[in-house]
Here is the input.
Amino acid sequence: MSVDAVLVALADPTRRQLLDVLAELGQASATTLGARLPVSRQAVMKHLLVLEQAGLVSSRRDGRQVLYQVESAPLEGASRYLAGLASVWDRRLAVIKRAAESTGG
Here is the structure.
């Protein structure tokens, strides 16, 4: 999955909360998740679709219900991207700091 899709999915606080609840429970249905969040079941379904499209959750049918669970691989990819970005900025800031210190600033 793309880092962009992961970051877009994580930008919404309700989706982050859904991931937290799923991580805590291991797996859950949309009904169970809706009972744990201050949004409707329909809103939970829409958020789960975005998370599933980003690869952050997977679903499987268990009888009449669909169970969702967190998938960590896309999070790891986004984490590597963000760590690389942080490293670039750390190097840039170190150059600025050295330049400021050498001019007595």
Summary: The helical segments are 3-10, 13-25, 30-36, 41-53, 73-102. The first strand starts at residue 28 and ends at 29. The mean pLDDT is 90. The first helix runs from residue 3 to 10.
